[in-house]
Amino acid sequence: MIKVGDKLPAGTLMEYSEVEGEGCSIGPNPVDVHKASAGKTIAIFALPGAFTPTCSAKHVPGFVQQAADFKAAGVDEIWCISVNDAFVMGAWARDQKTAGAVRMLGDGSAEYTKATGLTLDLTARGMGLRSNRYSMLVKDGVVKSLNIEAPGKFEVSDAGTLLAQAKAL
Length: 169
Fold this sequence. Notes:
The chain is of the alpha+beta class and 169 residues long.
């Protein structure tokens, strides 16, 4: 399992783009995690699934609402990772109004999530293998803080906790 001091695992996430530009076509585009995090401070949070109750009502909105505060604390980007395809993440981004605040990155086959060791088996609930709920602060690809939730909880991976850690960095 990934821990503080580790480098993010290599991998590719997918991001749905609404407009063409900067080498990105409309639709799903690959995001190389190492290239995208190089030289930046990134606030990453991951969750079990798009459009799920806690994720939609609390987790994503907290990061959207505090995006300017993260920027003021020296965070270059905020990433949301979920084991969903890029099309679902794009629809959820529109629903949550994340444009300009949070990059919604899909890990459709859970390959990246497996590489972090932060999987959550929700097969019994009909959802298959998903991501555990967590947040982390990453500087130049290295994990500086990591907040992993116990199953079914939402207590330490929220925007406020990670923002306090970003301010302390």
